[in-house]
User: Fold this.
Amino acid sequence: MSADIGRRLGDKKNTISNYRARLIDAGLVQPAGRGRLDFALPGLREHLRQM
Assistant:
């Protein structure tokens, strides 16, 4: 969840929300429930895991 990410990064919750909105606007992710995202581009999850 985004609150967990904020805690791990030491950022405020609104900072994480801003990043989330920018990723949605860019079409890289899509909302998948409260505080959750899913990758919008096929294969992106697998590509990032290989990095």
User: Anything to note?
Assistant: The chain has a mean pLDDT of 86. Residues 2-50 form one domain.
